[in-house]
């Protein structure tokens, strides 16, 4: 029965599909969503990205490069091993570059393709999809899950629920274990797990990350996207009328209504939408895309696959729900001209910034040398006269080898005429892989070539077995 608007004691009211007024509470009780399984090209792409991202996440820690884990963030020793390159804290600039590329890459992609990242590659989407696979495998598809949840508590229901949650927990713990394996060598971590000798911190982070995975993907699901993810809130700042979004073609679909396949729906005054609500049933966030773009939409395109399937059964053209732009949908330009709209200023700006940062980072990495040198002077005696009558300055060089193998290094100073480099101990300094050596170095310069004051000098440290590994560090020589 319809309700009069003035009789509804709520702040917000909407009209439902039956033309009745319906209460909308600002903080409504959560209603569980049961997404229906759907086949189609976009579902295949989602499956591909699930496997691609998870093969990377779970597989990379087990791969060794130069006898080291391919990716290992050794926080204790402040060394980061990434695909054979060793980064130190002073290489923090590369992390800044990665974050800039990720940010501007996301901005550019969002401006062009909307929330495709959310729908196909976001960890929350990926793990929710995996958990739904477990749920479907144990409890069945949508109607079977609804029936099970609404049914009485019996032995079968308990067995299925325990099985599902057991699979979720095991998978979550393995995810937590893998996460910690990026910070503790995973083979060592596995041995500690087998022998039950995990440290308190390792155990905490395995359980914490596992609990986060279990809670977010198993229980919160779409609520993370709706209420916790900031991306959904500021995405509108990057959208424009030329951004690809999942759209319902109102002009073609309305007025909607059920009908038999044999009926000439055009003669009956109906649009192509048969109001089957399949697009709603497959939606992982529970929205009706026919109501227009909503911030909850993650762009997964499940509704496109479902609608295309229905259109095929009704012998109607596909694309009632499709990826398109607002301007194309409003006939500002044909959809075939979408690619020409990529030249708009916003996309160009994001693209230029992304390209500049990428080029600088690649060039810097290409020139990156696996050896670093820090120089400190002997402050007790800035300059003194040596036994040979020349002026002497004393330095301490700290040489760090970030290469995957041991190297012997030569040290040569330049910058003043007739400068001599004297190294304490062996003239060739052996530094083990990922090791560090302190070396005492004395520079001798004739007094006639080093007057009072400071004179710039340069130390060149070169690997004897590989001259391409070389770095320079500037310092100064104090004369008198």
Task: Write a brief structural summary.
39% of the residues lie in helices and 20% in strands.
Describe this structure in words.
The strands form 6 sheets. Strands 10, 11, 12, 14 and 16 form a 5-stranded antiparallel β-sheet that branches. The chain folds into 3 domains: 1-30, no CATH class; 33-368, no CATH class; 371-479, Immunoglobulins (Immunoglobulin-like). Strand 11 and strand 12 (391-401) form a beta hairpin. The protein is an alpha+beta fold. The protein has helices spanning 41-59, 92-113, 116-120, 123-139, 142-150, 155-180, 186-194, 200-220, 222-228, 231-234, 250-253, 278-281, 302-314, 326-329, 345-366; strands at 12-15, 21-24, 64-65, 68-69, 71-74, 79-82, 85-87, 245-248, 321-324, 371-377, 384-385, 391-401, 407-414, 420-423, 429-431, 436-445, 453-463, 470-479.
Q: Strand pairing plus helix content: what structural class?
A: alpha+beta
State the separation between the terminal residues, measured CA to CA.
102 Å
What's the total number of strands? 18
- Given as residue ranges, the uncertain stretches (5+ residues, pLDDT < 50) are 1-10
